[in-house]
Design goal:
alpha+beta; eight-stranded antiparallel β-sheet; four-stranded antiparallel β-sheet; 6 helices; 16 strands; about 20% helix; globular
Amino acid sequence: MLTLKALTVAQKEQFERDGFLAVRQLLSERQVAAVKERLEQYIREGLRMLREGQKPEADTVNFNGVLIQLEPLVAKGEYVPDDPLYAARKVWNLFGRDEVLTQLATDPRLLDIVEDLMGSSAIWFFADKAMLKPPKIGVEKPWHQDLPYFPFEPKDENGIHVAVWIALDEATVENGCMQYIPGSHKLGNITTSHVDTYGLGHLAADMSKVDTSKAVAVEAKPGDVVFHDGLALHYSAPNTSDKPRWALVLDFINAERARYVGKGEPTFPRVR
């Protein structure tokens, strides 16, 4: 086992027990503001057609390689927000295209913790996605595991994937903070099928194996970071509040233990 670089033994043990760990105020107000500013620029420019009264042709817009997915009601033309910022559900494909986001994804403070949690100093950066829940219309993300979505094996072991969930806004139960079932990562891969929810593809888990009454809501302030194992069951409720809930998720893969089984040659970078 590697010597811990950033975490205490108690924090490491908590992650191994629960499958997730919240680290409070890991990022500064300045870092959070810089990320939000960049996301706002992409959304306002990429969704300019909404301001001009045009209906989007698809639920995902490609803006210079950055992908912006609309909330289902907006994509269907059933709701047109006054501000395009409240139209987007997800923004991704930022790494290598945006300096601010790339610097954050390679921030040693994040990578040191990922290394501690994986128990490996060999790390691939795999994906980024800003998950946005606009007020009132932000839909839920049903219970799921992350690792089964990704083109890596094994899919039933802990420590293959660690997700880094960064709060950009205050996250509460009302606006859709992250919720976890402690210890669910120890069940292995319990993903069962591909289902359609709100017109969005989703990999469903066998929830008969867990007790959702034991779910823990992890409310967060901007700059708080929640780390979770790729097999930890997690969920976020609809945003029923009048405030947005923005978060940035960075996905890291254990380069020592994971095997890439996707199509073509891998292009994701080694960051450790």
